[in-house]
Amino acid sequence: MSLLNRVSRRSFTALICLSASLVLTGCFRPMLAERSNGSSVSGDLSQIYVEVMDTRVGQVIRNDLIYDFGSNSSGSTYQLSISLDVKETGALVQPSTRVRGKTISINAVYTLTDNSTGEVVHGGTAFSRASYDSSRALFANERAELDAENRAAGVIADDIKTRISAWFAANPSS
User: Can you give the pLDDT at residue 1?
Assistant: First the structure.
């Protein structure tokens, strides 16, 4: 009798889980899916002009965003402005006071402006850290620093794209 009770409890629990999952399947909507009116977040992202930045790290972020957004015409509906703060700090100090590990820190503040009204419609901050080891070889240090900056810049670009995509999903343009 106790085996029958266990089987019936398990089947009842499975039935409850199955019915709950069927009820909740209609609640999920993919962020990048096409909306019922034919528009999509991808289409909204292609209407963003990313401002030119004057640093190498800024250009890496801008290029990543242009590639992700799919377009970058100056007659776009929105304009994205990004200000960066890039710092390099020593991570590990050896007894000889020679720094062996370094960290690149990038803090970005971005604003998305509607070109027709000049109003800031969305903004936020993003940050990234990337570490690298230094050695006595000069070229190896330079290359390691550039690779760390590129990794950190890629994280910033992905973060900004995700945040703006989520904003467009919650606030669809007409």
Answer: 47
